[in-house]
Q: What sequence folds into this?
């Protein structure tokens, strides 16, 4: 498993303050995928209501709070496929 993915799983787990009532897959280009759902955060590539894709630099900036997920989406650094409502719910957790 990629070190970037491992670090992202830890960082996302720390940001999540309870159950998330949806399923989101983060695809970090050239690294792998992370699932966030009611079961928690884990390195996995499974079906989800929403898939967010970004490069590792963008994803890291979002996790560190240096880049707002909405701003990343609006600038084209983050793509969202699937249920936008679910993406927005997770975005509020990450902001």
A:
């Amino acid at each position: 498993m990629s070190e970037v993915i491992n670090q992202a799983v830890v960082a996302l787990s720390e940001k999540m303050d309870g159950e998330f009532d949806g399923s989101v897959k983060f695809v970090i280009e050239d690294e792998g995928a992370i699932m966030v759902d009611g079961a928690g955060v884990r390195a996995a590539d499974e079906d989800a209501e929403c898939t967010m894709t970004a490069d590792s630099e963008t994803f890291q900036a979002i996790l560190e709070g240096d880049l707002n997920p909405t701003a990343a989406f609006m600038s084209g650094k983050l793509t969202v496929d699937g249920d936008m409502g679910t993406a927005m719910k997770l975005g509020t957790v990450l902001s």
In short: The beta strands are 24-28, 32-37, 40-43, 50-54, 79-82. DSSP finds four helices and five strands in the chain. The CA atoms of residues 68 and 74 lie 10 Å apart.
